[in-house]
C-alpha cells in the first residue's frame, strides 16, 4: 500500500527532528544530518557528521540518533524522515526482532543492530517520540512544507563529501 505524504505539524511542546542520510557509493563515504526545530518557534539547530566507510541506512539511523541525543531528557519529539526502512524498523519490525533475539523473520541477524539498539535506548530517554514520513527529494512551492527535509539532505550530502575528502 502506498504511503501518504502529509505535512507534519508539531504538537504542543514537541520538537521536530528532520533527518536524512547520504552515501557516495553504498558502502562508501557517508553523511548524516538532523535539523532540530525546538518547541515554541526557537531557531532550528543544524547537526551533521559523517564516516569514511558506511552505508546510507547507517547514516539514516545516525541522523535520528544524533538528533534525539541533542534534546534534553524527557523531551517530546517527532522524527521526520524520508527513509521507509528506518520508519518501518523502528515502528513495526523492532518488536519481532527483539522477540526473536535480534533475528529477522528469515533467521538472519538484524543489520545495523548496534544503531537500532542505540536508537531504541535513546527513545527511552524521552517522554514521547513519534515518527512521521515524508517523500524525499521534492522541492518547489508545492513542497515548501518539507523544505527542511531538502535542507537535511543537502547537509548530509555535504557531510558525505567531507568524509570522502578526509579519507582521500
Summarize the model shown:
The chain is an alpha/beta fold.
Mind explaining what this structure looks like?
The protein is α/β, with parallel strands linked by helices and 168 residues long. It has a single domain (14-82, 119-167), classed as 2-Layer Sandwich (Nucleotidyltransferase, domain 5), CATH 3.30.420. The protein is 37% helix and 25% strand. It has four helices and five strands, in the order E-E-E-H-E-H-H-E-H. It has helices spanning 56-69, 84-99, 113-123, 147-167, and strands spanning 14-23, 28-37, 45-54, 76-81, 128-133. It has a five-stranded mixed β-sheet. A hairpin with a 4-residue loop joins strand 1 (14-23) and strand 2. The protein is globular, with a radius of gyration of 16 Å. The N and C termini lie far apart (43 Å).
